[in-house]
Amino acid sequence: MRTTVGIIGAGPAGLLLARLLHNAGIDSVVLESRDRAYVEQRQRAGILEQGTVDVLRAAGAGGRMDREGLRHDGIELRFARERHRVDFPALTGGRSVMVYAQTEVCKDLIALQIEEGGPLLFEAEALAVEGVESERPRVRFRREGREDVLECDYVVGCDGFWGVARRAIPAEHSRVFERTYPFGWLGILADVPPSHDELVYARHDRGFALLSMRSPAVSRLYLQVPEGTDAGSWADEEIWDELERRFETADGWSLERGAITSKSVTPMRSHVHEPMRHGRLFLAGDAAHIVPPTGAKGLNLAVGDVVTFARALVHLEETGSAERLDAYSETCLRRVWQAERFSYDMTTLLHRAPDVTPFEDRVQLARLRRIATSRAAETDLAEGYTGFPLD
User: Fold this and answer.
1) Which residues in 349-381 are b (16+ Cβ under 10 Å) and which e?
2) What is the pLDDT of residues 109-152, one digit of tens each?
3) What is the rounded distance in angstroms from the CA atom of residue 292 to the CA atom of residue 180?
């Protein structure tokens, strides 16, 4: 099998890249190890930055998002039983975010790819990426019990942290920067309308809590829990009781309860692999970087990566200059590190470390009060949350 761009992974990054290349008249093949049903059901991110929304619309993949997604013009911060709303459009010149689940983004892009795009091969397990320093890299993969080879001009690894793409970069050319956190998020989906019309980020002495949603009828909520917590160890009523404690306000706001349909625990870590390119292999999304979910940056960073690659390849096709492709890693990493910084700031702003000192506790509250009373500090948060430029 032969193509211009071999894409490993049919998450939102790989699928969007295939769409962008198709629209530019560049052929590609997408290899995905899981079946279609799995890809369309796996729960991940749900917040799309303004830039991501704009890209999906421009790619012809924003129709259902605009009909069913929930535009949010702000978030609410809670601490010391107080409430403070951050107004995104007023602070950023009109930018906002969209609540639209990654599962729905994938469904939309899969439908477009099957209807209009190049090959999208499910249950095609990438085994190795070879020859990345040559002009004809290749991906060995297994499908329907047989091994095959996809020959490409370029390979883009959108196959996540545990995928094979990053392992094709020799260790002597790699640098890894990472941080792990001593807590995670216990997340639930519940069949109950959200108790607030925007996301609520709560800092509490017992730990962080987040009120989010998937639709007007389905709530998504999170609790900070110790690292290694088993989701099954929490009874449903215990979860609701703890959420109620952490969201408590002085004005009597109440949390609506409903049937919990799923529980899971998400570990918290920061990870960056440099460089994001080696030869004709390019890394995108979680294959290159991971952020703690506090800043809602994971999916959006992946979108930035594939937009950068697609634009650079189109530039090469149009001008014959590989300058932008050669700068892919440097260009992406500037945005990646800003997102890592923002996610780290949000995480340390709102979570309570197990070994926190009284001094650190007061500094955390002072940081929150600074955001609540300083337009400059509030603007910095709003600009970071709604997204850094894709260029």
Assistant:
1) bbbbeeeeeeeeeeebeebbeebbeeeeebbeb
2) 999 999 999 999 999 999 999 999 999 999 999 999 999 999 99
3) 9
Question: What are the residues facing 185 on neighbouring strands?
Answer: 224, 266
Other CB atoms within a 10 A radius of the CB of residue 27 amount to: 16
Q: Based on the residue annotation, tell me whether 354 is a catalytic residue of this protein.
A: no
Give the integer Cα–Cα distance in Å for 300 and 386: 10
Choosing from 12, 194, 292, 293, the catalytic residue is 293
CA distance 100 to 158: 21
Strands of the chain (E only): list them. 5-8, 28-31, 47-48, 70-72, 74-79, 82-87, 97-99, 120-121, 124-130, 138-143, 146-151, 154-157, 175-191, 199-203, 209-215, 218-226, 259-274, 277-278, 281-283, 289-290
Structure tokens at 133: 């320093």
| Residue 222 bears catalytic tag | no
201-218 pLDDT, tens digit per residue, is 999 999 999 999 988 999
Catalytic annotation on 385?
yes
Cβ 191 vs Cβ 214: under 8 Å: no
**Cα dihedral 22→96→47→176 (10° resolution):** 80
| DSSP annotation of 290 | E
Please indicate whether residue 293 is annotated as part of the active site.
yes
Which one of 72, 273, 278, 289 is the catalytic residue?
A: 72
Classify strands 154-157 and 146-151 as parallel, antiparallel or unpaired.
unpaired
The catalytically annotated residue of 181, 201, 222, 328 is 201
Catalytic (active site) residue 263: no
- pTM, 2 dp: 0.95
Pairing label, strands 124-130, 154-157: unpaired
